[in-house]
Amino acid sequence: MTKFAACVEYDGTAYCGWQRLSHAPSVQEEVEKALSYIANEKIDVVCSGRTDSGVHGIGQIIHFETDVDRNEKAWRMGANTKLPDDIAIRWVSAVDDDFHARFSALSRHYRYIILNRRSRPALLRHQVCWFPYALNAEKMHQAAQALVGEQDFTSFRASGCQAKHAKRHVQKVSVKRDGDYIYIDIQANAFLHHMVRNIAGSLLAIGQEKQPINWIAELLKQQDRTIAGATAAASGLYFVSVQYPEKFNITPSLIVPKF
Fold this sequence. Notes:
Blueprint lengths: L1 E9 L16 H13 L6 E2 L8 E11 L5 H11 L4 E9 L11 E9 L13 E2 L6 H8 L4 E4 L14 E12 L2 E8 L6 H13 L7 H8 L14 E7 L16
Parallel strand pairs: 3-10, 5-6
Antiparallel strand pairs: 1-3, 1-4, 2-3, 5-9, 5-10, 7-8, 8-9
């Protein structure tokens, strides 16, 4: 058996999320169908981090095992001919047997994009979170620094989250404005269900100056999801990259969505 890693890019608009479900289309199902066709046998894949309905991926890493003899180019090009236009495999590479797309990961990087202008978007309606009211990105950035470190993120955890505990280590976070766009970047060892979108929703309240800068710190302390901001739209969220130990020779994605 040979183990392969691959990088998948996708527009999540038409899918229920990454994870395969029996009642709705998923990115995982499409990727497995394409790889299985090339292998002429069933292929199961494991991802580095599941994304929700409507969330996009640029550097999603997966792994799969097979004893079928195909080179890396054949896997990539062949699978891409069988994938829908909104999903693509960027690269495929053989990896050591001890590599695991999820458990070998050191960190994940998400970017949340807000289009902050009066008029709604047409071309980017499924690619950004549109917010028509004035936002103070500097105050959002200051508030977000309270997230850095290993903490309990219960206040930013979806009620249906199945994680055993809410402790996560946020390594860095930033909020920057570029014209009409505001970019929220968060890197952590792992994320809870809806964690980034719930953080974004709370930062929007601070950006509107409806809440003080120290509100994020207070929410972390209270550990109560019901007092935090609303869950921000899925359309603005991108799974950007995954970092692994150097021995696996997997370079994090250098492509960061920017409009």
